[in-house]
Amino acid sequence: MSSPCEHDGICVNTPGSFACNCTQGFTGPRCETNVNECESHPCHNDGSCLDDPGTFRCVCMP
């Protein structure tokens, strides 16, 4: 049987149900939602933030 948790989340049995422990960068009951790490403005020196699934990248200005 496949896991109900997306993006490599770990399924944990609970009484009568389940819960998902999500990997970094994902959230939601089934880990279905990508966290937008760019909302916290992690890039410095006028770098542009690109949100990728489960992570982000900073693009530095030349």
TrEMBL record:
<dbReference type="GO" id="GO:0007219">
    <property type="term" value="P:Notch signaling pathway"/>
</dbReference>
<feature type="disulfide bond">
    <location>
        <begin position="22"/>
        <end position="31"/>
    </location>
</feature>
<keyword id="KW-1015">Disulfide bond</keyword>
<dbReference type="GO" id="GO:0005509">
    <property type="term" value="F:calcium ion binding"/>
</dbReference>
<keyword id="KW-0245">EGF-like domain</keyword>
<dbReference type="InterPro" id="IPR018097">
    <property type="entry name" value="EGF_Ca-bd_CS"/>
</dbReference>
<dbReference type="InterPro" id="IPR001881">
    <property type="entry name" value="EGF-like_Ca-bd_dom"/>
</dbReference>
<feature type="domain" description="EGF-like">
    <location>
        <begin position="34"/>
        <end position="62"/>
    </location>
</feature>
<protein>
    <recommendedName>
        <fullName>EGF-like domain-containing protein</fullName>
    </recommendedName>
</protein>
<dbReference type="GO" id="GO:0005112">
    <property type="term" value="F:Notch binding"/>
</dbReference>
<keyword id="KW-0677">Repeat</keyword>
<dbReference type="InterPro" id="IPR000742">
    <property type="entry name" value="EGF"/>
</dbReference>
<dbReference type="Pfam" id="PF00008">
    <property type="entry name" value="EGF"/>
</dbReference>
<dbReference type="InterPro" id="IPR000152">
    <property type="entry name" value="EGF-type_Asp/Asn_hydroxyl_site"/>
</dbReference>
<feature type="domain" description="EGF-like">
    <location>
        <begin position="1"/>
        <end position="32"/>
    </location>
</feature>
